[in-house]
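Section 5.1 Outputs to date
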Amino acid sequence: MTKSTIARLFVGSLIAIIGGIVLLMIGILVGYANGAFVMSGPHLQGIESTPFAWSMVGLGVLGILAILGGGIGQFVAWIGAVLNTSRLDDKTWFILLLVLGLLSFGFIPMIIYLLVGPDSTWRQAARLDFAHQ
């Protein structure tokens, strides 16, 4: 997987997560403001059986699905970055992405990798072009 593909996947899944959070918050806030939820003090007792209430629930579920899909996309982008850096001669980026990702601190290293990190597929393509000349 090339670094540009990893970057597109990472940014696209980040947009999906942000969009999912927005949809979920809209569904909850608009539903709560319009009385779609049956409350007993601070506790949710149920959902009004109206089309509006169920549309807000559907909006929330759609937001949750977008968040989950974005999370899966982030994971795939991280795997792609780890595999891409594993082909490099210098294993610093590989170890950094792998260890911090496994410790759940992989977001910032992924951003740094996408901004300034090396791309092993670019070097392999350059070697192939040089070999064919």
